[in-house]
Write a structure and sequence with these properties.
Blueprint lengths: L5 H16 L10 E2 L6 E2 L7 E4 L1 H10 L3 H8 L22 E5 L2 E2 L19 E8 L12 E7 L9 E11 L8 E12 L2 E12 L22 E12 L5 E14 L3 E4 L10 E4 L8 E16 L2 E15 L23 E17 L6 E18 L4 E23 L2 E16 L2 E2 L12 E2 L5 E14 L4 E12 L3 H6 L17 E14 L2 E20 L5 E20 L4 E14 L9 E2 L9 E10 L2 E10 L2 E2 L10 E2 L2 E11 L4 E7 L9 H5 L14 E9 L1
Parallel strand pairs: 4-7
Antiparallel strand pairs: 1-2, 3-6, 4-5, 6-7, 8-9, 8-36, 9-10, 10-11, 11-12, 12-15, 13-14, 15-16, 16-17, 17-18, 18-19, 19-20, 20-23, 21-22, 23-24, 24-25, 25-26, 26-27, 27-28, 28-29, 28-30, 30-31, 31-34, 32-33, 34-35, 35-36
């Protein structure tokens, strides 16, 4: 798909529709998001913003059972889902997004497990707020954007609310090993000054099957959703002593674990034969996610004329991976080379605090200021479970970042915004020993510890021009800040006399995001378009080694993209729409300053178009959605493992009917039973045992009720 002057096209489109805007000034309900630290209307944010509502989540849960699938369906710029436990190869605008639960970071930047999309059950989520593009307003990690899972809260009516959802999913042909069952129940109530919501959910998944009826191979190493179980315990307690104050405790305990009943029979790429699952437990324990997130929030709307918000949080994150006799694990002092089995487990403990104070009409009318400070302490290590060796040494990261942000309406409809954030970080690693296999002669190296520190001033600036009630244009510059995958760097040292203080690859990753866009509403039509350019002088690119493990390469990168959304309410019942995402990435592979190669599929998503038609009338609701992934040529890509990606189309269907006792829904994923190899399976890996097909036709019948 050609990518020609999207900025010019966007501006021309805006100019063409501008004269029509004055003809219709129908009121449009203002939508607010909290992912910006303080609740802010979408129209005031100089970036593309996507909000996935409760209704959207419920529909997509009935079609697909993984969060990344419906993010890819509803959020332009998010890469195709791998349909696996691991999000390796999934990206947002070609970079890593920062996942949050009620503002609490879920990412593990020191040793990226790529599991942050699976730390909460979708049944607990009320809405998903997505801010596109690099920014630092939420701190470390958002070089691709922010994905904030906003959890459910108790009803304010005072009545006891009890509800639940149950569903069963079957593969086409209703194969006995292909069933999936889900159940979630909750209870909540506001009693005087107190409120609570408690929820518990369970999911049991069988095998996945492709469009030919073949079982899909299980990724036993990185982790899989197929042949797995998960459970989520969630509670939210609130106390409001008066109309200005609120104290809230949130606890979410989530576990996703493979059952370990199946191994994978490698496919044959040359013949187009995908990997399949075969009965028989692989050696070792199945891959697991075990995550507990706790936050304590306090807010007071009457502090020095503004609102004070304080959040304290803890997270205990454990991600285990399947094992093998990988070359990286071999040590002749323990067992003959080629026979030593081991498997790794990533452990990360985070604690942090986020303080924000905001006030409107500071100094002069119309000036909105907010500021505060963030503190993060992250302790991470990755151990090998069978031999009790540390693959990644214990690494401690401390970050203190004060910030200030301001917005001012210069003239009617023209708002300027800008801010500063000072990142002050330190990494601490004691002396440690590498694995023996890091060197050709199995010599264990001692790496000198160190405490490298980093500081940088991160800036952002934006302008929003509300031409009239229907048409808004914006432009922004923002910077994102994160750490590279420190663990991959430290575990890969193979040079004697190395020191942590001397490793350039540990330098932070800073991404600059320039964006220009427009939002337009006219009568029944709503449209958004955005062009962005993201640059990094020392970006991160992942390259697979002989074991399939990714190593970090630091290189200059540039990513350009176009995103667009168009929706139309044809009647009160019928709505049509779609979104488009096109992105191109370039990288400097030899360090001469010239961008000489394209980014490969492991580091950037596919171009994609999604269309839908939805119908809601009375008790009936229905939606059909079509997704098209465009072909892509990787001939000029750095370390490309495939010359091209062959795109594919899928169609999904959702329908529901409201009964007196609840709502019954039917979802059909891959309605046409299309046979295809996933984006990552085709172009993101060169291993035959990861040549995975996508899911064929599945049927989900769900029932939910509340009383």
């Amino acid at each position: 798909m050609p990518f020609r002057s999207p900025l010019i096209l966007s501006l021309l489109a805006s100019a063409c529709i501008a004269p029509m805007a004055a003809a219709d000034t129908a009121d449009v309900e203002e939508l607010y998001v909290s992912a910006t630290r303080t609740p802010k209307p979408v129209s005031a944010i100089p970036n593309m913003v996507s909000v996935i509502s409760t209704e959207d989540i419920q529909e997509q849960m009935t079609v697909a059972t993984d969060i990344s699938s419906f993010l890819g369906q509803l959020v332009p710029g998010f890469s195709p889902s791998r349909q696996k436990m691991s999000g390796v190869g999934e990206s947002f605008r070609g970079r890593k997004p920062l996942y949050l639960i009620d503002g609490v970071p879920q990412s593990t930047p020191l040793r990226d497990s790529s599991r942050e999309g699976y730390t909460i059950d979708p049944a607990v989520i009320e809405r998903i707020e997505v801010i596109h593009g690099a920014n630092a307003i939420q701190g470390l990690g958002a070089t691709g954007g922010i994905i904030n899972f906003v959890t459910k809260k108790a009803d304010t009516s005072g009545d006891l609310q009890i509800g639940g959802r149950a569903s069963i999913t079957a593969a086409d042909g209703f194969k006995d090993k292909g069933f999936e069952e889900q159940i979630a129940v909750y209870a909540g109530q506001k009693v005087g000054k107190f409120d609570y919501l408690a929820s518990v959910s369970f999911v049991s998944r069988g095998l996945f099957y492709d469009g030919e009826g073949r079982s899909i191979g299980v990724d036993a190493t990185q982790g899989d959703l197929s042949d797995s179980d998960s459970r989520d315990f969630f509670v939210k307690l609130g106390f409001e002593p008066d109309e200005n104050q609120r104290l809230q405790l949130m606890v979410n305990d989530y576990e996703l674990a493979g059952d370990g009943d199946y191994s994978t029979l490698a496919g044959t790429r040359a013949d187009g034969i995908p990997a399949t699952a075969v009965k028989g437990a692989p050696e070792g324990e199945p891959a697991t996610n075990d995550v507990t997130t706790v936050s304590l929030d306090y807010s007071n709307k009457a502090v020095a004329g503004g609102t004070l918000s304080l959040q304290l949080y803890l997270q205990d994150f454990r991600a285990s991976f399947g094992g093998g006799t990988f070359a990286s694990f071999q040590d002749p002092a323990i067992a003959p080379v080629g026979t030593l089995f081991d498997q790794s487990e990533n452990n990360s403990e985070k604690k942090g605090a986020r303080l924000t104070w905001d006030r409107v009409d500071v100094i002069v009318p119309g000036l909105h200021l907010y500021g505060g400070a963030d503190y993060l302490e992250d302790t991470t290590y990755q151990r090998l479970r069978e031999t009790d060796r540390n693959w990644v040494p214990e690494t401690k990261f401390e970050n203190i970042a004060p910030f200030v942000q301001g917005e001012y309406e210069l003239v009617d409809g023209l708002t300027l915004s800008g801010g500063l954030r000072y990142e002050n970080a330190k990494l601490r690693v004691d002396d440690y020993q590498t694995l023996a296999a890091n060197t050709a002669d199995f010599t264990i190296l001692t790496v000198g510890g160190g405490s490298p520190s980093f500081s940088d001033l991160i800036i952002n600036a934006g302008i929003v021009n509300k031409i009239n009630d229907n048409w808004t244009v914006y432009a922004s510059y923002s910077e994102g800040f994160t750490m590279p995958d420190v663990g991959r760097v430290l575990r890969g040292i193979n040079v004697a006399n190395s020191s942590v203080d001397d490793l350039f690859d540990l330098e932070p990753v800073k991404a600059d995001n320039i964006e220009i866009g427009t939002t337009f509403t006219y009568g029944v039509f709503h449209a958004q378009a955005s062009y962005y350019e993201s640059r990094s002088d020392a970006g991160v690119r992942y390259v697979a080694d002989s074991d399939g493990f990714l190593r970090v390469t630091r290189e200059k990168t540039r990513i350009r993209g176009l995103e667009a959304i168009l929706e139309a309410s044809i009647t009160d019942e019928l709505r049509l729409g779609g979104n488009l995402a096109v992105q191109r990435g370039r990288v400097d592979t030899n360090g001469d300053g010239d961008l000489d190669a394209d980014l490969d599929a492991a580091n950037i998503g596919a171009d994609r178009a999604n269309l839908f038609a939805s119908y809601r009338s009375g008790d009936i609701s229905a939606r059909v959605q079509w997704s098209h992934l465009f072909d892509r040529d990787f001939t000029n890509a750095a370390d490309a493992i495939a010359a091209e990606f062959k795109g594919y189309d899928t169609v999904d269907l959702f329908a529901s009917y409201k009964l007196e006792v609840g709502t019954i829904s039917l979802g059909i994923q891959n309605l046409m039973d299309k046979t295809y190899i996933t984006y990552y399976g085709q172009a993101g890996s060169n291993r035959d045992d990861r040549y995975f097909a996508g899911r064929g036709r599945t049927f989900t019948l769900a029932f939910q009720t509340a009383f």
